[in-house]
Write a structure and sequence with these properties.
4 strands; globular; Translation Initiation Factor IF3; alpha+beta; four-stranded mixed beta sheet; single chain
């Protein structure tokens, strides 16, 4: 592991939205599979609870949106990020990669600390 990668792992607690940090998160998120799928019913209470649990456990997650309209996807993405205090790292097609810093990350569950 390079010194730069080790420094980013250590400094993940003070993550900013710089291009270098987002590039690192995209690299970590590349092999992840979507944890939550949001379909026609939209953002229900149960889906919201699962997103919240996943963000607290894993910090970096993928969400699949099965909605046809691009504007609806953008609206839902904004709603998820504001409701759960998450940051959008990447949005490609139907997949969102979002990040939220955990208060007390679990090294066995966190996608940032396991890599």
């Amino acid at each position: 592991m390079s010194a730069k990668m080790a420094a980013l792992k250590i400094e993940h607690y003070i993550m900013t939205s710089s291009a270098e940090d987002k590039k690192h998160l995209r690299r970590l998120g590349h092999n992840l599979r979507p944890i939550v799928t949001i379909a026609g019913k939209g953002l229900t209470e149960n889906i919201g609870a699962e997103i919240n649990r996943a963000l607290n456990d894993h910090e970096l997650i993928k969400i699949k949106l099965s909605l046809g309209d691009r504007a609806a996807k953008k609206l839902l993405c904004d709603e998820i990020c504001t409701s759960y205090g998450a940051q959008l790292v990447q949005s490609i097609g139907h997949i969102l990669l979002i990040y939220k810093k955990a208060k007390k990350p679990n090294p066995k569950l966190s996608n940032l600390l396991r890599q």
